[in-house]
Design a protein that fits this description.
Length: 332
C-alpha cells in the first residue's frame, strides 16, 4: 500500500504530485523530490519559510537547509546554510548519491552544487516583495531577530504586529519547514525536509531540519518520521529517531508522536506554555499519526484557519489527498 504524509496544509499540491508519480510507477525517492521541489520553487509558499521567497537571515541572505533519508539502508544526504539555490532538496539528494560525505554546509555546499550542474542564482532572484519588505522591517526593528522560529520540518507562535500587517493575520504566526514521508508499493520508505529556516536568523544558523534523527528519520524495517517546530529546542531530543524507535517497540505512529511531544516538553519544563513542535509518522503497515503543540494555523492560500496542526494524507484508496487536523497534545 502506498501512503504519503506531509506537514502543513500547504503541502497539499506536493502530496498530490507525489501521488501522481507513485501511481504512474515512480519510486519513492523520485516522487518525493518532485513534490518537494514544487514547494521549494513556488514563491507563493515562500512565506511559509520554504525555498524561493523564504525570509532571509539577519544579513539579508536566503539560506536553505534540506535533507533526505531512505529507509532501505538509512542512506542520508543534507545541506545546511546553502545560499543561491531555490531547491536545496535536490542538492541534498545529489550529496547522498554522489558524495562520500553525508552533509555539506555553506560555501562548500554551494561549490558542490555548482560542480554538479545546479543553478546558483543571485540572492535577489530568490526574494519576493513580501520577503524584501519583511527584511526592511527587520532592519528598522532588529530586536525581532529572535521572535520567530522555523522549519517544512520550524514554527513561531509569538505575536508580531509586522506579520499581522503584511499577512493580514490576527492570529499567531508560524515559521515552518516542509516535511514529507513516502511509503511506496514496494514497501520502501523515504523522508524529506526543506526549510529556509528562522526568519532573520544569525548567518550560518542551522535548525533541526537537515539533522538525521532530529528533522527526519527513516528505516524500512519500521517506518519514518519528520519534525517541524522550534528546531533550536527540538534538536536536543532527536524527536524523529525517538518516534521511529517507539514504533519499533510496537507503538502506533499516533501514540509514538504524542509520547515524543510530551517527553520533549516535560524535559524543557514548558508544560504550561509549550514550545512550538509538530511531528508526523508513518509505519511500514501504512498507518500514520501526528501530534503537536500547534493551537491554530492559517493557510493564506485558501484563507482557512485550522484549529490545530493541519497535515496532508494520501493513500492508494483515495482519489485525492486529504487535509487532516490534529488537536493540541495535552501536556500534564
Amino acid at each position: 500500500m502506498a501512503v504519503i504524509v506531509g506537514t502543513w496544509s500547504f503541502s497539499f499540491d506536493a502530496v498530490k504530485s507525489i501521488s501522481d508519480k507513485l501511481t504512474s510507477g515512480s519510486g519513492c525517492l523520485d516522487a518525493l523530490e518532485k513534490g518537494i521541489n514544487e514547494i521549494e520553487d513556488n514563491p507563493e509558499t515562500g512565506s511559509y519559510f520554504v525555498g524561493r521567497g523564504g525570509f532571509p537571515n539577519a544579513s539579508g541572505v536566503l539560506e536553505g537547509d534540506a535533507a533526505v533519508m531512505l529507509g532501505k539502508d538509512c542512506s542520508f544526504g543534507a545541506v545546511a546554510a546553502l545560499q543561491g539555490v531555490a531547491m536545496p532538496f535536490s542538492v541534498a539528494r545529489c550529496i547522498m548519491e554522489r558524495s562520500p560525505h553525508s552533509m555539506l554546509v555553506g560555501q562548500g555546499a554551494q561549490d558542490f552544487a555548482v560542480n554538479n550542474g545546479f543553478l546558483v542564482e543571485p540572492n535577489s532572484a530568490l526574494q519576493t516583495q513580501i520577503s524584501k519588505e519583511a527584511y526592511e522591517e527587520f532592519l528598522m526593528n532588529p530586536s525581532k531577530e529572535n521572535n520567530c522560529h522555523d522549519t517544512v520540518g520550524e514554527s513561531c507562535l509569538q505575536l508580531s504586529f509586522f506579520f499581522m500587517v503584511v499577512f493580514k493575520l490576527l492570529i499567531l504566526w508560524f515559521s515552518l519547514s516542509q516535511g514529507i514521508l513516502v511509503l511506496d508499493s514496494n514497501m520502501q520508505v523515504a523522508a524529506g525536509v526543506s526549510s529556509s529556516g528562522m526568519a532573520f536568523k544569525h548567518p550560518g544558523r542551522v535548525g533541526d531540519s537537515p539533522l538525521p534523527g532530529s528533522g527526519l528519520y527513516a528505516d524500512d524495517e519500521v517506518g519514518a518520521a519528520v519534525a517541524t517546530g522550534d528546531g533550536d529546542k527540538m534538536m536536543r531530543f532527536c524527536p524523529s529517531f525517538h518516534v521511529v524507535q517507539l514504533m519499533k517497540e510496537g507503538c502506533s505512529p499516533q501514540e509514538s508522536c504524542e509520547r515524543v511531544v510530551r517527553h520533549a516538553q516535560r524535559k524543557v519544563g514548558m508544560t504550561s506554555k509549550p514550545f512550538d513542535m509538530a511531528l508526523i509518522a508513518l509505519n511500514k503497515k501504512g498507518e500514520f499519526g501526528a501530534a503537536s503543540t500547534v493551537p491554530v494555523f492559517e493557510d493564506k492560500s485558501s484563507n482557512t484557519v485550522f484549529s490545530g496542526f493541519p497535515f496532508v494524507v494520501w493513500t492508494q484508496q483515495m482519489n485525492c489527498p486529504e487535509i487532516r487536523v490534529q488537536p493540541v497534545v495535552t501536556i500534564d
